User: Fold this.
Amino acid sequence: MFRKVPKSVVAVAGVDFTVPKGEIFGLLGPNGAGKTTTIKMLCTLITPSGGDAFINGFSITKDQQKVRENLGVMLTGERTLYWKLTGRENLEYFAALYHLDSVSAKKRIWDLLKLVGLDEREDTLVENYSTGMRIRLSFAKALLNDAPVLLFDEPTASLDPQSSHLIRDIIRDLKREGHAIILTTHNMEEADLLSDRVAIIDHGRIVTLGSPSELKQKVKSSDIIEIEARNLVEQTANALQSYSEVSKVAMITSPHPGETEVLRVHVEKGKEVLPRILEFLVRKQVTITKVTFIEPTLEDVFIAETGRSLRD
Amino acid sequence: MNSRNINYPARLLEEFKASFLKDLRSYVRYPAWMVGEFISTPLWFFFFALGVTLFAPVASQPANGNGLSTGMGYFFFGFVFIILFSTSVWGVGQSVRNEQEAGTLEQFFLAPANRATLILGRWARIFLTDSLIIAYTTVLLYYLGGAVVSVLNPVMFLLGLGLYEVSLIGFGLFMAGLTMRIKAYNSIGNLIFFGYMILTGALFPISVLPRPVLDFAMLLPFTYLNDIMRHAALGTPLILPETLEYVVAILAAVGLMVFGFVAFNRIEHDARVRGSIATS
Amino acid sequence: MQTSTGLRSDIRALAAIFSKGLKHHLRYPGEFLLFLLLPFLFTFLILGMGTAVAGANAASYFAIRTGTTNIVIYEILGGAVWMISWLVVEDVGTAIRDEQIKGTLEQNFLAPVRRFTLLVGLSLTDVVITSLLFLVVVGVSVAVVMPGSILTIIPAFLALLLGLIPLFGIGFLFAGFVVRFKEPYIFTQIVSLVFATLTGTYYPVTFLPYWIQLLSGALPQTYVIEDMRRIVIANQTLVNLYGSLFVLLALALVYPVLGYAVFRRIERRAGVTGEFSKY
Assistant:
C-alpha cells in the first residue's frame, strides 16, 4: 500500500588525489564503485554535496565555466553524439560550443578525424557508423579544444583490439604532450598498461593508490594460486578462509552455468599449502581442471584490499 | 586551442548558429517528421474549420474588408496562436527531453556554452518551419476556399508577434527545465496545452466561459497576448482599455522571460546537485 | 523440455499477449486518460468556436445542416469513434514498431507463435480498451444530456463492435507500413486525422465534395458514426440500419484478410533485409 521512499546513497566519499601534467591517472574499480560519479563531478555535471576539486587551478564548485574550458571529456557509451549529423558536423557543432574559431576548427577537425581513422567517413551520418566508429568519434570530440586536462570514462569499452590499441597509443601521445589525464576503467589490464598511477576505488572510496608496480609489490609477499574448477560454490570458496595460511580468497564466477569458475587464493607458503587446499576441494566434490601459480595483477591488489574480485 | 580572443557577443552568435544548424539538419534528415508536420498541421486546421462552419450563418458576411468572415478569421488566427504556443510546450520545451533521450544533453552541458543558445537554436528553427507552414496554409485557404487572409494593422500585429515570441521563449525555458525535473512531462504538457486552448481565448472569446473560469482566464498572460494580436488582425474588441492592455502584454512578455530564465537555471542547478542531467 | 503445439498453445499465447497489452495500458494510464478526455475537450472547443461564430443562433444553424439541435451528443459520438479509431490504429499499428525500438521485437518473432496470433492478441486488448472508452465517453454523455435514451447505447455499442473488425484490419495494414517505413507516431497522427476528416467526425459526410465521399464510403468509421447518431439521437433501431450494417459486415470480412496479407508480405521482405533489428 505504501511506496518505499528510496534512501539516498553516498556514491563517493573521501576521494582525494592529484594529477600533475604529463601523468595518466587510472581510476579502477568494479561497476557501481563511484568512478563515473567522480568523473561527472570533476566535469561539473554533478555538484558535489561537499568538498571541492580543481581543474587547472579552477574550482569545480565556483568556476564551472572555466573548468569546462580547461577540460576535454569523453563519457562512456555510443549515444553521446547526434545520429542525424555526420561525423564532421558533430565535431563542427561541438567546436562552436567550445568557442574554436572557424578556421582553426576546420583544421583541427580534419586532423582529429584522421587521427582516429574516420577521415574517409567524415560525411557519413553517425547513425550509419558502427559502435567502434561512434566511440572513436566521441574520443575525437574530447580532444577538440586541446584542453590541458582530459577525462576519459572507459575509452576502449566496446572497441575491437585494433581500435583499442589505437586509442591507447593516442592516450600515450597525449601524456607525452603534457596533458593531465584521468582514465576510468574496470579493465585492469588496461589500467596496468596505461596508468602511471592507479587509484582503486570501491564503494565510493579510494582503497589504495600508487603506481601499478608499487601496488602489485604489496601483494607479492603472498603467493597467488589460481584454480580453475567446476561445481564450485561460494560456501566452499569461503570455507578456504579457515586455513590460517590463506589471507584472501575470491571467486570469479562464470556467467554460464556448468562452465569453469576461477578461484584466486592469496596464501603464505603456497607450495606447502596447495596439497591441503586441493584435497579440501576434492572432498567437496569440486572438479579441478587447472592450477597455476601466477604473478599478481591489479585484480589481486583489489582482492587483497577488499576481499572481492573486481568482476563481482 | 579554444579561442579566448573571440569576444563574448561573437561567441554567443557562434553558439546560436551552431545550435540552429544542428537542429535544422536533424529536422530535415527525419523526412517523415518534416513531411508529417507539413501535412498534419494544415489538416488539423481544415478539419476543425469544417466542424465550425456547421455553425456559420447560412450566408456569411465578411468583416471589415477581410476575406474571411469574423468567425473564420477568429478560427484562423486561433490556429496560428496554437501553432505558436506549441513551440513552447512541444518544441522548445521538449528540446531538453529530446537531448536527454538521445544522450547528447550531457555533452552540451560539458561545454562552456551558454545554456540559452541550445533553447534559442531550437526556437529559431521552429519559428522558421512554423512560418512556412502558416504561410502555405494561408495559400491553401485561398485556393480551396477563396478566402484572403489579411491583417488590419500590420505594425501592431508585428509588435504583438514580437511580444508573443519573447513570451514563448521564456515559457519554453520553463518547460525545458520541467523536462529535467519530471518524468511525466507529456501528461503535464498536454494539460497545459489544452488549458491554453480553452482558457486563453485562442479559439473563441473568453466571454463564452462561465464566470469563475472567466475570472481565472483573465489572470493568464497569454489571454492578453492572444487578444492584442487578434485585435490588430481583425479589429476585434479588446478585453481591457487599449493602452492598459498593451502595458499588460509587455509586462507579461518580460515577466515570462525572466521567470523562464530563473526557473531553468534553478532546475539545472538542482539537476547537477541530484546528478540527474542525463535522466529525470 | 517438452513444448506443445496446436490450438491450446495458441490460445495460451493469445492470452499472454492480451494480458501483456492490458498491463501496459494499466501501467500507463495517462495515455488512456488522454483518449477519454479528448472527445469532451474537442466537443467543448467546437461548441465554443461555434458560439463565437453564431452567437445565440448556433443551435439553429447547426440544426439546418445536421437535422438536430443536440450538438453535444452529435459531436461526442463523432469524437468518441475518432478516438477509438486512433487508439486502434496506434495500438495495433505501432505495437510492432514499439517492440522494434525497445529491442524486443526479435525476441517475439523468435518464438514459435504465429504472427496472426500476435496481431489478434493486440486487437483483443483493444476491444476491452475501446469498449471502456465508449462506455465512459458516450455512456456518461448520454446519461447527462439525454438520460431517457440511455438504453440506446446498447445497440450503438453493437454497431461499434461490428465496426472494430475492419478497423483492426486497417491496423494490421498500418503495422506493416510502420515496420517498413519506421516513424510510426507521425504516420498515426496523419492517418487518424485523415480518417477523422473523411468520416464525418464533426460534420455530416455530405459536407464533403462527392469524390471525397467515395473515399469516406470505404472507411468503417463513416458507417459507425452515422449509425450511432441515428440510433442515439434519432431513436432508430439496428433493423432500420440494415443497409449500412451489411456494408460494415462486408468490410469486416475483407479488411482483416487484406490487412494481414499485406502485413505478412512486408514482414517476409523485412526478414530478408534485416528490417526487424534496425532501430
